[in-house]
Design a protein that fits this description.
The protein is globular. It has a 6-stranded parallel sheet, with helices on both faces. A 3-stranded antiparallel sheet has the order 7-6-8, covered by helices on one side. The protein is an alpha/beta fold. 31% of the residues lie in helices and 20% in strands. It folds into 2 domains: 1-27 and 73-113 and 159-239, TPP-binding domain (Rossmann fold, 3-Layer(aba) Sandwich), CATH 3.40.50.1220; 30-71 and 117-152, SIR2/SIRT2 'Small Domain', CATH 3.30.1600. It is built from 9 helices and 11 strands.
């Protein structure tokens, strides 16, 4: 395995973040112990079939999530990763649909599952700032067709920016998975792609994932607001 490099030259780093990064900002993690997502079945609010079946329910769900995300504030983990993102050779990928990394000042965040603050035209692919309340009858600002949906990647859809992500992983020297369950693909397979090119791998999570010992060289357990700033300080020095 190749080392990450000295603190002032950390090498090519790819960071993947998940729901655990934003939990301390008051945004619930993906699903709780009974398999529900904010009291809804995943199948009812996070699939194309759910949207086809009951678009009003799906839009109300994301309207509520958009309102909640707007009141959340970045925590120290977001701020630390924002600082890291301004160093050369760092690629920051998030599975989260909130914009807390961006609001913390992170540079060029790759939102592989879309953004809660964005609307998408299902007809022409145009994107625009989402209104507080979204309706399928809202006309697209570009083509005028009433085909509005959340700009979110649902189960069964291809994540955004995969070519760019795979290119970054192919050149990684250090891969970090932060606050992610390691259960949702293709993101769960990024560590394996990084390992295949000789990158050192580290997991930072509240508790280690079940297979962390087999898939990661290092595992750091604890709240993201504590572990991530310390990890970033170790890479590039304190702020």
């Amino acid at each position: 395995m190749r080392p990450a490099g000295p603190p002032d030259q950390p090498g090519r780093i790819v960071v993947l973040t998940g729901a655990g990064l934003s939990a301390e900002s008051g945004i619930p993690t993906f699903r709780d112990g009974d398999g529900l997502w904010e009291r809804h079945r995943i199948e009812d609010v996070a699939t194309p079939e759910a949207f086809d079946r009951d678009p009003a329910l799906v839009l109300r769900f994301y309207d509520m999530r958009r309102a909640a995300a707007a009141t959340a504030r970045p925590n120290p983990a977001h701020a630390a990763l924002a600082r890291l993102s301004h160093h050369p050779g760092v690629t920051l990928i998030t599975q989260n649909i909130d914009t807390l990394l961006d609001r913390a000042g992170a540079r060029d965040v790759i939102h592989m599952h879309g953004r809660i603050d964005s609307a998408l035209c299902a007809a022409c692919g145009h994107r625009w700032t989402a209104p507080a309340a979204m309706a399928t009858s809202d006309p697209c600002p570009a083509c005028g067709r009433p085909a509005t949906r959340p700009d979110i990647v649902w189960f069964g859809e291809m994540p955004y920016h995969m070519d760019r992500i795979e290119q970054a992983l192919a050149g990684a020297q250090l891969f970090a998975a932060i606050g992610t369950s390691g259960q949702v693909y293709p993101a769960a397979g990024f560590v394996d792609l990084a390992r295949s090119v000789g990158a050192r791998t580290v997991e930072l999570n509240l508790v280690p994932t079940d297979d962390a010992r087999d898939r990661f060289d290092d595992s750091i357990a604890g709240p993201a607001g504590e572990t991530v700033p310390a990890w970033v300080d170790g890479l590039i020095g304190p702020a």
